[in-house]
Amino acid sequence: MTALTVNGRPVRFDVDPQTPLLWALRDAANLTGTKYGCGVGDCHACTVIVDGEALRSCLVTVAESEGRHVVTIEGLSRDRSHPVQQALVAEQAIQCGFCTPGIAMAAAALLARNPDPGVDEIKAALPNLCRCGVYPRLVRAVQLAARVARREETISAAPAPGISAEDAAREVPAMNPGNKP
Protein backbone atom coordinates (compact mmCIF):
# COMPACT_ATOMS: atom_id res chain seq x y z
CA MET A 1 0.00 0.00 0.00
CA THR A 2 1.11 3.50 -0.83
CA ALA A 3 0.64 6.21 1.78
CA LEU A 4 0.37 9.89 0.93
CA THR A 5 -1.58 12.95 1.97
CA VAL A 6 -4.42 14.06 -0.28
CA ASN A 7 -6.16 17.37 0.40
CA GLY A 8 -4.77 17.38 3.93
CA ARG A 9 -5.86 13.85 4.80
CA PRO A 10 -3.70 10.75 5.03
CA VAL A 11 -4.61 8.22 2.35
CA ARG A 12 -3.44 4.69 1.59
CA PHE A 13 -3.89 3.38 -1.92
CA ASP A 14 -4.07 -0.38 -2.39
CA VAL A 15 -3.38 -0.32 -6.13
CA ASP A 16 -0.53 -1.36 -8.39
CA PRO A 17 2.36 1.01 -7.53
CA GLN A 18 2.72 1.86 -11.23
CA THR A 19 -0.86 3.13 -11.44
CA PRO A 20 -0.90 6.77 -12.52
CA LEU A 21 -1.82 9.08 -9.65
CA LEU A 22 -4.68 10.34 -11.84
CA TRP A 23 -6.46 6.99 -11.70
CA ALA A 24 -5.82 6.48 -8.00
CA LEU A 25 -7.38 9.88 -7.31
CA ARG A 26 -10.34 9.38 -9.64
CA ASP A 27 -11.10 5.69 -9.14
CA ALA A 28 -9.86 4.82 -5.66
CA ALA A 29 -10.42 8.17 -3.90
CA ASN A 30 -13.45 9.28 -5.96
CA LEU A 31 -11.89 12.71 -6.53
CA THR A 32 -13.22 13.14 -10.03
CA GLY A 33 -12.42 16.85 -10.38
CA THR A 34 -9.02 15.84 -11.72
CA LYS A 35 -9.75 15.20 -15.40
CA TYR A 36 -8.37 12.66 -17.84
CA GLY A 37 -7.56 14.37 -21.09
CA CYS A 38 -4.84 12.75 -23.14
CA GLY A 39 -3.01 10.37 -20.82
CA VAL A 40 0.41 11.43 -22.10
CA GLY A 41 0.87 14.78 -20.37
CA ASP A 42 0.20 17.06 -23.33
CA CYS A 43 -3.12 18.63 -22.32
CA HIS A 44 -2.50 19.29 -18.58
CA ALA A 45 -6.18 18.60 -17.74
CA CYS A 46 -5.03 16.29 -14.94
CA THR A 47 -2.84 18.87 -13.18
CA VAL A 48 -2.70 18.61 -9.40
CA ILE A 49 -0.35 20.21 -6.88
CA VAL A 50 2.23 17.82 -5.43
CA ASP A 51 4.40 19.25 -2.66
CA GLY A 52 3.65 22.75 -3.96
CA GLU A 53 4.42 22.01 -7.61
CA ALA A 54 1.88 21.72 -10.43
CA LEU A 55 2.29 18.22 -11.88
CA ARG A 56 0.38 16.21 -14.46
CA SER A 57 -1.09 13.34 -12.49
CA CYS A 58 -1.22 11.09 -15.56
CA LEU A 59 2.61 11.10 -15.58
CA VAL A 60 3.18 10.52 -11.85
CA THR A 61 2.76 7.02 -10.46
CA VAL A 62 1.28 6.19 -7.09
CA ALA A 63 4.72 4.85 -6.08
CA GLU A 64 6.33 8.20 -6.97
CA SER A 65 3.70 9.90 -4.79
CA GLU A 66 4.63 7.94 -1.67
CA GLY A 67 4.87 10.28 1.32
CA ARG A 68 4.01 13.39 -0.69
CA HIS A 69 1.29 15.98 -0.22
CA VAL A 70 -1.23 16.16 -3.07
CA VAL A 71 -3.88 18.83 -3.54
CA THR A 72 -6.67 18.33 -6.06
CA ILE A 73 -9.27 20.85 -7.21
CA GLU A 74 -11.55 19.53 -4.44
CA GLY A 75 -8.91 20.48 -1.89
CA LEU A 76 -8.14 23.94 -3.25
CA SER A 77 -11.17 25.28 -1.39
CA ARG A 78 -14.30 23.50 -0.32
CA ASP A 79 -16.57 26.45 -1.10
CA ARG A 80 -14.84 27.62 -4.30
CA SER A 81 -13.62 30.73 -2.52
CA HIS A 82 -9.99 30.43 -3.61
CA PRO A 83 -8.99 33.61 -5.49
CA VAL A 84 -8.16 31.61 -8.63
CA GLN A 85 -11.56 29.91 -8.69
CA GLN A 86 -13.36 33.19 -8.08
CA ALA A 87 -11.30 35.04 -10.72
CA LEU A 88 -11.91 32.37 -13.37
CA VAL A 89 -15.64 32.92 -12.90
CA ALA A 90 -15.39 36.71 -12.69
CA GLU A 91 -13.34 36.92 -15.90
CA GLN A 92 -15.62 34.42 -17.68
CA ALA A 93 -12.61 32.23 -18.32
CA ILE A 94 -14.66 29.05 -18.14
CA GLN A 95 -16.43 27.75 -21.20
CA CYS A 96 -17.03 24.01 -21.26
CA GLY A 97 -15.17 23.60 -17.95
CA PHE A 98 -13.30 20.41 -18.78
CA CYS A 99 -9.82 21.97 -18.58
CA THR A 100 -10.72 24.31 -15.71
CA PRO A 101 -9.58 22.15 -12.76
CA GLY A 102 -6.11 21.68 -14.28
CA ILE A 103 -5.85 25.37 -15.09
CA ALA A 104 -6.95 26.36 -11.59
CA MET A 105 -4.35 24.08 -10.03
CA ALA A 106 -1.55 25.37 -12.28
CA ALA A 107 -2.54 28.97 -11.52
CA ALA A 108 -2.76 28.32 -7.77
CA ALA A 109 0.72 26.76 -7.77
CA LEU A 110 2.08 29.75 -9.70
CA LEU A 111 0.57 32.27 -7.28
CA ALA A 112 1.83 30.32 -4.28
CA ARG A 113 5.40 30.71 -5.50
CA ASN A 114 5.03 34.17 -7.06
CA PRO A 115 2.29 36.49 -5.80
CA ASP A 116 2.81 38.96 -8.67
CA PRO A 117 3.63 37.12 -11.90
CA GLY A 118 4.01 38.89 -15.22
CA VAL A 119 2.10 37.98 -18.36
CA ASP A 120 4.93 35.85 -19.77
CA GLU A 121 5.28 33.92 -16.51
CA ILE A 122 1.53 33.32 -16.41
CA LYS A 123 1.54 32.02 -19.99
CA ALA A 124 4.51 29.74 -19.24
CA ALA A 125 2.85 28.39 -16.08
CA LEU A 126 -0.42 27.61 -17.89
CA PRO A 127 0.49 25.30 -20.79
CA ASN A 128 -2.97 23.74 -20.46
CA LEU A 129 -4.86 22.91 -23.62
CA CYS A 130 -8.22 24.68 -23.75
CA ARG A 131 -10.24 23.75 -26.80
CA CYS A 132 -12.59 26.67 -26.15
CA GLY A 133 -9.70 29.13 -26.52
CA VAL A 134 -10.13 31.30 -23.43
CA TYR A 135 -6.41 32.07 -23.17
CA PRO A 136 -6.62 35.90 -22.96
CA ARG A 137 -9.25 35.55 -20.23
CA LEU A 138 -7.02 33.10 -18.35
CA VAL A 139 -4.22 35.66 -18.16
CA ARG A 140 -6.64 38.30 -16.90
CA ALA A 141 -8.08 35.84 -14.39
CA VAL A 142 -4.67 34.98 -12.96
CA GLN A 143 -3.78 38.67 -12.75
CA LEU A 144 -7.06 39.32 -10.91
CA ALA A 145 -6.51 36.34 -8.60
CA ALA A 146 -3.05 37.68 -7.77
CA ARG A 147 -4.48 41.10 -6.85
CA VAL A 148 -7.19 39.46 -4.75
CA ALA A 149 -4.65 37.23 -2.99
CA ARG A 150 -2.53 40.32 -2.26
CA ARG A 151 -5.71 42.00 -0.89
CA GLU A 152 -5.50 44.82 -3.43
CA GLU A 153 -8.91 44.01 -4.89
CA THR A 154 -12.03 42.02 -4.14
CA ILE A 155 -14.30 40.05 -6.42
CA SER A 156 -17.99 40.71 -6.21
CA ALA A 157 -18.99 39.29 -9.60
CA ALA A 158 -18.36 35.64 -8.74
CA PRO A 159 -21.22 34.26 -6.64
CA ALA A 160 -20.81 31.69 -3.92
CA PRO A 161 -21.67 28.17 -5.10
CA GLY A 162 -25.06 26.60 -4.60
CA ILE A 163 -28.54 27.93 -4.22
CA SER A 164 -30.11 28.76 -0.90
CA ALA A 165 -33.23 26.89 0.14
CA GLU A 166 -35.17 30.18 0.08
CA ASP A 167 -34.15 30.89 -3.52
CA ALA A 168 -34.92 27.36 -4.64
CA ALA A 169 -38.44 27.57 -3.18
CA ARG A 170 -39.12 31.12 -4.36
CA GLU A 171 -41.97 31.51 -6.81
CA VAL A 172 -40.81 32.82 -10.15
CA PRO A 173 -43.21 35.17 -11.97
CA ALA A 174 -44.61 33.70 -15.17
CA MET A 175 -43.16 34.94 -18.42
CA ASN A 176 -45.65 37.13 -20.22
CA PRO A 177 -44.19 38.53 -23.46
CA GLY A 178 -45.81 41.78 -24.43
CA ASN A 179 -47.96 41.82 -21.26
CA LYS A 180 -50.65 39.69 -22.92
CA PRO A 181 -53.36 38.24 -20.68
UniProtKB/TrEMBL annotation:
The keyword Iron-sulfur applies. Residues 159-181 are annotated as: Disordered. InterPro entries: 2Fe-2S-bd, 2Fe-2S-bd_dom_sf, 2Fe-2S_ferredoxin-like_sf, 2Fe-2S_ferredoxin-type, Beta-grasp_dom_sf, Diverse_Oxidoreductases. Transmembrane segments: none annotated. PROSITE patterns: 2FE2S_FER_2. Residues 1-76 form the 2Fe-2S ferredoxin-type domain. Pfam families: Fer2, Fer2_2. This is (2Fe-2S)-binding protein. Keywords: 2Fe-2S, Iron, Iron-sulfur, Metal-binding. It comes from Tsuneonella deserti.
